[in-house]
Amino acid sequence: MIGVLSYAVFFASIVLILAVLALGLNLQWGYTGLFNAGVAGFYAVGGYAYAITTAAPKPDMIGHLGWHWSFGILAAMAASALAAWIVGLATIRLRDDYLAITTFGIATTIQLVTLNWESLTGGPNGLAAVPRPMAEAFASPLGFNLFYLALLAAIVLIVYVALERIVRSPWGRVLKAIREDETAAIALGKSAVRFRLEAFVIGSVLMGLAGALYVGFIGFVSPFDFLPIVTFQVWAMVIVGGSGNNRGALLGALIVWGIWSLSGIAVAKSLPPHLAAQGGAMQVILIGLLLVLSLLWRPRGLIGEEPMVSHHAAESA
Amino acid sequence: MMSGPLAHIPKKWIPVFRKGYAPTLGVITALAATVLLAGTAAAQQVTCPVKIGGILPLTGSMAPITKKISEAALLAIEHINAGGGIKGCPVQFILRDDQGQSTVGVDAAKYLVEIERVQAITGTVSSGVTAPIIASVTAPSKVVQISCCSTASPLTTDGRSQGYFFRTLPTSKTQAYATASEMARRGLKKTAVIYVNTDFGLDMNRFARAALPKLGGEIVIEVPYNDNQPNYRAEVTRALAAKPESLLLIGFPKDAVTIVREWLSLGGSQKIALNNSMRVKDFVDGVGARFLNESFGMDNAQVEGPQVDVFNKAFEAKYKYDSKGPGVHTQYDAVMAIALAMNIATELTGPAIKDAVRRIHTAGGTVVGTGSEEFKQALELIKAGKPIRYSGATGPFEFDPNGDVTGPALVWKIENGEIKTDRIISIDDMQALFKQVGN
Lengths: 317, 439
Prior knowledge:
The complex is a heterodimer of chains A (about 325) and B (about 450). With about 325 residues, chain A is mostly helical. Chain A has a domain at about 10-225. In chain A, about 70% of the residues lie in helices and about 0% in strands. Chain A has 13 helices and no strands. Chain A has helices at about 1-30, 40-55, 70-90, 95-115, 120, 140-165, 170-180, 180-185, 190-220, 230-240, 245-270, 280-295, 310-315. In chain A, helix 1 crosses helix 10. The longest helix of chain A has 30 residues, at about 1-30. The mean pLDDT of chain A is about 90. Chain B folds into 2 domains: about 50-170 and about 305-360, Response regulator (Rossmann fold), CATH 3.40.50; about 170-295 and about 410-435, Response regulator (Rossmann fold, 3-Layer(aba) Sandwich). In chain B, the strands form 4 sheets. In chain B, strands 7-6-8-9-10-15-16 form a 7-stranded mixed sheet, sandwiched between helices. In chain B, strands 2-1-3-4-5 form a 5-stranded parallel sheet, sandwiched between helices. A two-stranded parallel ribbon of chain B has the order 11-12. Mean pLDDT of chain B is about 85; it is low at about 15-25 and about 40-45. Helix content of chain B is about 40%, strand content about 15%. In chain B, strand 11 (about 365-370), helix 14 and strand 12 (about 390) form a beta-alpha-beta unit. Chain B contains 15 helices and 16 strands. The termini of chain B are far apart. Chains A and B meet through helix 1, helix 4, helix 11 and helix 12 of A and helix 1, helix 2, strand 2, helix 3 and helix 4 of B.
């Protein structure tokens, strides 16, 4: 049973890391209506910032500062904030599809930078020997994974509670107003650009945090961790779980990664050995089928957005 | 509003019981429970069947070449089982897809190690997926991992695998040096290099850049390209601007076809040197056989010999097409190496198997080859305590202290649409070449 526990802990850790990504995207899309198709880019910025700041110094590499992992995580969040701020300033006035294409292009650019800037990022070979938080303190992989799961759970809890507070705050209500009817919001004196930029940056900070947590978990980073499929997966999580709802984002992360992972197990267990080579195709078909079915069954996501009724309407009723 | 038996409980207290959550979570949990609990087994005693794990990119951009690779693995398992299995038990091979994505690959590896309790894994192809698997699963859990096809040099040289990672294909150095020597032998001058911007392409380019000038050639421009693009006109134009007289193309067949066609249609020379991935019919047909008569390529040589023939025949008999292609022979040898090591090991644990891997090629041992008959013989020798020397589908290879193999190289050419072997560069010639280039 130790094996099942080990795997479950590992699985849960990946779900929590992806959940942080989903929470970030949910703030950008679900609450503010920003179509960010460049999730993988900010994920990469955070992941690499963590690796570059915490890896041990090496003569021909830039960075490699050997910092403590907690500072590495903070550095990742700061780097994503900066990247998002720059990207945001340039693109925040764009609507929907235009923002989507731009952010997708930016994510691809970031991935290409990581692929080419060898002295900073290690190029295609990536950066190995990235310190994993407290890894030396644990003799067995299970011990380390349990510790890391606890760390992730604590971080996700803090992020979730913080997000719930800010979306229920006046700031959060303005985000919704901008998403629903931007002209009306501007007419009421709110600067749509400022709020959208803030939501974009905060969401991207969360994505950078997820990147740091992922690289700290694996102990290795390379450009191939941040392919566009990651953006697709996180979007699926937000849509399937229910956009505009933080619980939806968490649930979506569990469901979508669960589909991805367990479909592979189900296929490996149910196919006879001589068909094993077809297993991959079967798994991909199964993933697509489950995603489509889930959306057909609950088109608005598993947990819809909570309807908010104005206080004033309640008073006058 | 909520209806039903739980209507009186405030929503925010028990979110998981809200309508819609429960069925979906239920499905996931049921799925999880079935698959997880069905696969638990004791770790230390030899319980039959003995499981070996496999991770390959069965889908994704590498899928076209992986089909044959996975078939080679399955053929090896068949031979192993027909020849006596491992420690008297039949072998169960559990093959998972990594989809070319590192997170999926790491998840699959963890599943194999923890739920299926495999003591050895073969996998995978892309170095970008092999590396995180080593870092987060096989090295910490002390599970032997033998890859057929990951070429990034740091995987074996920087010590991250703590000795648990091996690979049955020579790294790009062998291929690059051999390609350079063949280019020099054919008198190719003023070469443009177009290479795929991955660790494989970068490594090959770096080694080619080191070797070619020392052997009498000249590189006039190096142009990287990113894979999976629909069009490579920009890269080809840039390469042609340097007025090259030959091309060294390093990459994978699908994009290579696009590049070569663009190159030829813009007036590029037909003197093209290719790497091993292009040694497939799809490439020849895609470009057009009549344009490729002056082209040639390299591959790690499957030294011709009885052992290689046995493998090739068995493969063709089972799958009805030839065994040519990247990774096919190395994958067969990777699985055979695992099975032999597991039989030699005193117990089926990671550390014991790791120590046994190099005892499959003991100097002076009795030569055992490919196929189920030879495997049966190998088991008898192992039982009698006699040393064996495995000579596989890639010939007689040896794992060096890092876990790499050295081997001979093969030059192939295209003649009237057929891929033919031109000549072999033996291990000794390769050693001499390494010395000449200065390593």
